[in-house]
Structure formats: C-alpha cells, structure tokens
Amino acid sequence: MYNKEDKILIIGAGGQIGIELTQELSVHYGSSNVIAADIKPIPALELNPFEKLDILDKDALLNVVKKHQISHVYLLAALLSATGEQNPMFAWKLNMEGLFNVLDLAKEKHISKVYWPSSIAVFGPTTPKINTPQYTIMEPSTVYGISKQAGERWCEWYFNKFKVDVRSLRYPGLIGWKSAPGGGTTDYAVHIFHEAIKHKKYECFLSADTALPMMHMEDAIRATVEIMHVPSDQIKIRGSYNLAGISFTPSEIAEEIRKHIPDFQISYNPDFRQGIADSWPKSISEDAARNDWGWSAKYNLSSLVQNMLENLA
Ligand code: NAD
Ligand code: AKB
C-alpha cells in the first residue's frame, strides 16, 4: 500500500491537520520522504525536511517539487470560514490560486497524485439540513464555501480534461488534541476541551442548540490516507466525498464533558460565526464514501470526548 519510492509534499503542514497528517504519513513512508512546507516555521515537526514556501509562488513550488522529486502533494494551505469572511478577497486568492498551482503541476506531469480537502462549507442555507446527501442544492454563503465549491468543480475538470489524479474529502469540523484550529466556525469544539480542563468553564461563540457535523482528527487522517491509497478506478467522485462524522450541539458536548468534569459550566455569546454555522448542514450522509471505498468512522461523541480529555489532561 505504501510505496517507499513515493515522495510526499505537504503544503500547510504547520496547521491543525498538517501536523497530524505529516506525522501519520511519516510513520508509513519514513520522515525523510515526507517534506513539510509552510509559509511559517513548524517547531512541532522537527524530524521532517522543512521548506519555507508560499503556495502562491508557482516557481518556488516547482523548485521544491523538483528538488525533492515529489510524487504526491497534499495541499492544506487555505483561509478557513471565519478568517475568510474577515479577509474575503485574500481568502479567494489563496484558496483558488494555491489549488491551480498544484493542479497545474499535476497536469504538467511533475507530480502524479494530489490531495485537496473540501468542507461541509460547500453547502448553504438552501441545502437540506438533515442527512445532507452527496448531490443536493449547493449555494454556499461564505467566501470560504464558495472557494471550496469552485475548487471541487475545478478538481473534477482537471480530472476529466487531463486525467489529473486528484482526490478530496468534504471534512466536517475536525477535533484533535495535538494541534490548534486555525480560524474556523467549528473551532469551539476544540477550545471547549482546553477551557474545561484549565478553567472548568467556557463561553461558546455559537448558541446552545447549533448542531454541526464534527469528526475526531484520527478518523479524518485515516480517511485521508485511505482515499489516497484506494485504486484510482474506485474513486467515482472527483469533486469531493461527503464525510458524516458525529453531529452534536454545544450543549450536548458540554453535557458529555460534564460526565468527566461534573462542575464544568458553559455559557453562550454568539458572534458572527453563528450566521455561518446556521447556513451549514446539521448532519451529513456519507453513503458514497462507504460504497465506493469502504469508509467507516470509529469515534462517536462519547469516545471522542473521553479521548480528548484523557490526552489533554
Ligand atoms: P490551518 O489554518 O490550521 O492550517 C493552514 C496552514 O497553511 C497554516 O500552517 C498556515 O501557516 C499555512 N499557510 C497559510 N498560507 C500559506 C501560504 N501562502 N503558503 C503556504 N502555507 C500557507 O488549516 P487546517 O484546519 O489544517 O485546514 C487545512 C485544510 O483542510 C484547509 O483547506 C481547510 O479548508 C480544510 N478543512 C479543515 C477543516 C478543519 O476543521 N480543520 C474542516 C474542513 C476542511
Ligand atoms: C471551518 O469551520 O471553517 C472548518 C470547516 C468545517 O471547514 N472547520
């Protein structure tokens, strides 16, 4: 499954997903074959070769790919939903031009495989909110969601036109204990654990009953590694696959935390992120991922909360 001749480049390796994905791929390919690239240094990844790289610099990207004879690129550099709304034009530039730079490298045969994550942000206020299907109305209302929706169509186009082997997952909000989230609407579901352990209280920026799909980082990393290793003809969707994860509200996760920290208190002070959350699905159907490449998650809410508290404590 893991070809030791493959050389991996992770762009945005210093972020919430990048740190864990770099560590996981290093176990399988060896640290020296997994190159961590980011616009800023990554102290957490001292075993991997590091390249300081701005994904918007196409020539610098090509130099890194040639220097390390890269075969697979995981493109994680992006602005997320909350920071994207605060800097919309730059979010569009970074999220789209970064993707074009990588897809063009694959089109020109410098690399053979691309991973690029999409998000539940591709859905919008007119999408059915419960058990959202793979194919449905998609009218995203954030710049981030618009960039992910456009990105999905471009991935599909590069596959159809040029046979670019690009694979993608629509991640729900991701929750892990090894790295910090980078400016999304679902970030509360990581912050809440740190505050519960440190201060036994948390002020949530979403309302008590805002249900959103979330996923343990371990499941998300496994899904990423799995989709990158299934035979190409099993990948029927070259836009992006829905992943369901676990759906819960802030009050439900607080209740679960209280089973471990009985005097934990949560209060609610919704800000602009409430509007973003209200536009997203409450739960997702992942039938296509299950049927096409056998996806199945391991964590439920209770095991996620237990795992987060044990590791952070
Ligand atoms: P993050 O913000 O934590 O990390 C992004 C990384 O990219 C940072 O280390 C940043 O320094 C780097 N970066 C920014 N601009 C760069 C540039 N010009 N060149 C090179 N590197 C640059 O993001 P994340 O949460 O790890 O998300 C990674 C990807 O997964 C994004 O595409 C995001 O949309 C997607 N995603 C994340 C989640 C989630 O819950 N974390 C959910 C759905 C989709
Ligand atoms: C965000 O909240 O922006 C991300 C995502 C779900 O894409 N975590």
Structure keywords:
2 domains, alpha/beta, 6-stranded parallel β-sheet, 42% helix, 3-stranded parallel β-sheet, 313 residues, Rossmann fold, 14 strands, 11 helices, UDP-galactose 4-epimerase, domain 1, binds 2-amino-3-ketobutyric acid, binds nicotinamide-adenine-dinucleotide
Mind explaining what this structure looks like?
The protein contains eleven helices and 14 strands. By secondary structure, the protein is α/β, with parallel strands linked by helices. The chain folds into two domains: about 10-170, Rossmann fold; about 175-215 and about 245-310, UDP-galactose 4-epimerase, domain 1, CATH 3.90.25.10. The strands form four sheets. Strands 3-2-1-4-5-7 form a six-stranded parallel beta sheet, sandwiched between helices. A three-stranded parallel beta sheet has the order 6-8-12. The chain has a three-stranded mixed beta sheet with strand order 9-11-13. Strand 1, helix 1 and strand 2 form a beta-alpha-beta unit. The two termini are about 35 Å apart. The mean pLDDT is about 95. The structure holds nicotinamide-adenine-dinucleotide (NAD) and 2-amino-3-ketobutyric acid. Nicotinamide-adenine-dinucleotide binds near residues 16, 40, 94 and 174.
CATH fold description of the largest domain: Rossmann fold
Distance between the terminal alpha carbons, to the nearest Å? 35 Å
Query: Radius of gyration, rounded?
Result: 19 Å
- What name goes with the CATH superfamily of the largest domain? NAD(P)-binding Rossmann-like Domain
